[in-house]
Design goal:
The chain is mainly α. It has ten helices and two strands; from the N terminus they run H-E-E-H-H-H-H-H-H-H-H-H. Strands 1-2 form a two-stranded antiparallel sheet. A hairpin with a 3-residue loop joins strand 1 and strand 2. Helix 2 packs across helix 7. The N and C termini lie far apart (53 Å).
């Protein structure tokens, strides 16, 4: 029933509905996040191998629609289907297949050892999504403490490490974090991301990298 009802509208129509879904009360809605993802993914595209002549517009479209399925009835009912529903609805709406696949891929990896995004577009959106969450949530003091991690930021940082290491992507994380911070400044009209919180994000990602390396190399080498 939800599937049939959702498909009465193209996926892009659900973008406006994201304005009613709060990402975090101090930093806006999922509609705001979608706009930031579009800008950040565009800047990350070259680093991950997106063909600027052939794939750039597809990258922007995928980033813009990546979270649209969160407003659909099917995903509201079964959140574990996020991304998968987006891919199916994008395909049914006539979106390019590269866009549909990237919508599903940007949630990968979901856990250690999970599959990685298979395409440059999916990879760019996956990195943008995680960097945006880390930078924004650290800026408003929501970094994980002890066993508490309601926004899954440890998993997000580990996902960044897995993608960059396993895909052998040469990305300047200092620059990437700065780009993510600029997205919040442009959207909110004020600089909410301090130098201290940006440094904390980099240290946090570095901690996940150290954990991955300790599984391969002696601790003193790490």
């Amino acid at each position: 029933f939800f599937f049939d009802e959702d498909r009465r509208r193209p996926l892009a129509d659900y973008l406006q509905d994201l304005q009613t879904l709060t990402f975090q009360e101090d930093i806006g809605s999922y509609y705001d996040k979608a706009a930031r993802l579009e800008g950040l993914a565009a800047r990350l595209g070259t680093a991950v191998g997106v063909d600027e002549d052939r794939e750039f517009d597809l990258l922007l479209r995928a980033a813009r629609l990546a979270k649209a399925d969160l407003a659909t009835q099917l995903v509201v009912e079964m959140t574990s289907l996020q991304g998968l529903v987006g891919r199916e609805y994008a395909t049914g709406s006539g979106e390019p297949q590269e866009v549909a696949e990237a919508i599903a891929e940007h949630y990968l990896p979901r856990y250690a050892g999970d599959a990685l995004p298979a395409t440059p577009i999916g990879t760019a959106v996956a990195l943008a999504d995680r960097l945006d969450s880390l930078v924004g949530l650290f800026a408003v003091g929501l970094q994980p403490t002890g066993s508490t991690d309601p926004y899954g930021l440890r998993r997000a940082a580990l996902g960044i490490v897995q993608i960059l290491v396993e895909r052998e992507i040469n990305l300047d994380l200092h620059q990437a974090v700065e780009w993510a911070a600029q997205g919040y400044t442009q959207e909110l009209g004020q600089n909410i991301v301090s130098a201290k919180s940006r440094a904390a994000v980099l240290d946090f990602i570095g901690g996940r990298l150290a954990g991955v390396l300790r599984e391969v190399f002696p601790h003193d080498v790490v």
